[in-house]
Amino acid sequence: MTTIALIVAAGKGERAGGGVPKQYRPLGGLPVLRRAVLAFSRHPRIDAVRVMIAEEHRALYDAAVAGLDLGAPVIGGAERQASVLNGLESLADAAPEIVLIHDAARPLVPAGVIDRVLDALDAAPAALPVLAVADTLKRGEGGLAAGTVSRDGLWRAQTPQGMRFDAVLDAHRRAAAEGVTMTDDAALMEWAGHAVALVAGSEDAMKITTAQDFALADRLLAGALETRV
Ligand code: CTP
Ligand code: MG
Asked: Which residue ranges does the record annotate as region 2-C-methyl-D-erythritol 4-phosphate cytidylyltransferase (predicted)?
């Protein structure tokens, strides 16, 4: 069985600000993207890693992954969904059984999360790591509380999201043809009628979104909360 990790790194990192896009900035001495790649390339159950990048970041990419055994990057699209589709299309001939689609902006994903997603794919066509919602959820209108939303059955979705390749390529192609957009790949799989299994995520798999998230990621790295490959 062939399992490929697709790492989407073609974003501009606008919310993180700060000149160099977040995926190319250092975290604990290594570029964020390099950490994300290593999480998969060092994992014994991953056969290959493919990265989607923005054309204008080629030099940053080459520097970030120097010395790693990676094939050529795939150029992404204007939205994350388009970047994923480009990555999937680039694998159409190779046709792996499984793809794990991962945000470059989640550099500290533990090996255990990858294992849990892969294990779930034995029984389901798709799987994603999730965390419980701890805070009380409020609806707000015009600066005033306008109701409390039950947390029952609500989860925070992370990556890597694992899918059977044929099913996710078909879902993405259909969505593109119909102009359907969703915020993650698991949502597209649900839209296409596939069961998506939930497995335990990890706070270490946090997404770096804002400049402050770099400080949080540094603390997680120092604490090494879960063992990484
Ligand atoms: N991504 C991508 N192609 C895009 C947009 C996003 O490959 N057109 C990737 C990002 O590089 C990131 C992941 O999808 O690894 C999650 O997206 P996000 O955290 O939103 O990153 P950015 O889009 O880069 O950040 P921002 O939205 O703040 O500009
Ligand atoms: Mg974005």
From this structure: 1-227
Predicted ipTM > 0.90: yes
* 128 neighbors 198 (Cβ within 8 angstroms): yes
- C-beta of residue 158 within 8 angstroms of C-beta of residue 129: yes
Q: How far is CA 10 from the centre of its chain?
A: 12
Single pTM value for the model: 0.96
pLDDT of 15: 97
Q: Which of 12, 79, 181 to mutate to test the pocket of ligand 1 (most atoms within 8 A of CB)?
A: 12
The number of the ligand nearest the C-alpha atom of 54 reads 1
Phi, psi of 91 (to 5 degrees): -105, 0
What ranges do the domains of the chain cover? 3-223
Burial state string for 16-47 with b = 16 or more CB within 10 A and e = fewer than 16? beeeebbbbbebeeebbbbbbbbbbbebebbb
- pLDDT score, position 225: 57
